[in-house]
Design goal:
Length: 317
């Protein structure tokens, strides 16, 4: 995954209000769960932004022992994430509490390690360079690519494709097979931005009009660009696109089928094999005991589930 999140401008107000309350879903997603049982009352409901309760997850001493002191020494698992990418990671109604299925998975990992969890908000493109220094790990819908594998080690935990989104009815008649001259919104630093940039290079090589690439740090700004008519189409991870469509009511719609379903992964400092092994074993434990599936079900993204956490999977060149 790869788009940005956040909402700052007055123009984004209408879309932003909805996105702060919700949870993005995959283009191939289920609908987000809004009612879950709450232990004491048996049937009291809670909004999906409250997420999954990880308080009952127990420490696994054998897995925790794998973590180096550089990670476990201060008793906290510090996780870098771009909290504008609902439903994976975004801010709750208070505008400051990180929520989302990636956040719940971060908390679950920390619980297996016997650590406190701290999610630190950052811009998407600044997280990977800071893993191992500012952050113990990065969990922010990172699609596994060869370029990123050169910078960090990865442990897979999810899968997602990419989705094109226009205003409902595609009023600008966008044809994704020919984007030359089209206004396209993307999030900075994402694989989608790379794809659109490559398409633009081809437009120039063919002597056609260039793509008007509108790159924004925050995914919410990307969504708003299309909803407001500033751009004709945006390209994002399928869970994010699905959530944006749901939260803007009848404003937006997917264009065509999802493309390029690929794994998403936890980013770990390059060469830190001990942390990579600990994260892989902890994630696999959560998958095997059903906690992982419950977290995805809570957020309505179970169609992105995988059953095996893998270190540094092979990727296409």
């Amino acid at each position: 995954m790869s788009f940005s999140m956040g909402m700052k401008s007055m123009t984004a107000a209408a879309v932003s209000a909805a996105m702060l309350i919700a949870v993005a879903a995959c283009g191939t997603t289920d609908s987000a769960t809004s009612d879950t049982s709450n232990g004491d009352s048996g049937s009291s409901s809670k909004t999906s932004t409250q997420g999954f309760d990880t308080s009952s997850i127990k420490k696994d001493d054998a897995i925790a022992a794998l973590l180096p002191d550089s990670v476990a020494g201060d008793g906290t698992l510090t996780v870098g994430t771009d909290t504008s990418y609902a439903p994976a990671e975004f801010l709750a109604e208070d505008g400051k509490t990180p929520v989302g299925f990636d956040v719940d998975l971060s908390k679950a990992l920390a619980a297996v390690f016997g650590l406190k969890e701290e999610t630190v908000s950052s811009t998407f493109d600044s997280i990977i360079p800071s893993v191992g220094s500012k952050y113990d790990i990065g969990i922010s819908s990172f699609t596994v690519t060869k370029e990123r594998l050169d910078a960090v080690d990865f442990v897979t935990y999810f899968k997602a494709g990419s989705t094109w989104v226009t205003k409902k009815g595609n009023p600008d008649k966008v044809d994704t097979s020919n984007l030359c001259g089209v206004k396209v919104a993307v999030q900075t630093g994402t694989t989608q931005e790379e794809e659109v940039t490559a398409a633009n290079d081809q437009c120039k090589a063919d002597g056609k009009d260039e793509i008007d690439i509108q790159s924004s740090k925050l995914q919410t700004d990307v969504t708003t660009a299309v909803a407001s008519g500033k751009a004709s189409v945006f390209y994002a991870d399928s869970p994010v696109a699905g959530y944006a469509i749901e939260q803007t009511g009848d404003t937006l719609a997917a264009l065509g089928d999802d493309t390029g379903v690929t794994p998403e992964a936890v980013a770990i400092k390059k060469g830190d094999s001990a942390t990579a092994e600990a994260v892989q074993k902890a994630m696999q434990k959560l998958m095997d005991d059903g906690t992982y599936q419950k977290i995805l079900d809570t957020w309505g993204v179970s169609s992105g589930a995988i059953d095996k956490a893998e270190i540094n999977p092979a990727v296409d060149e």
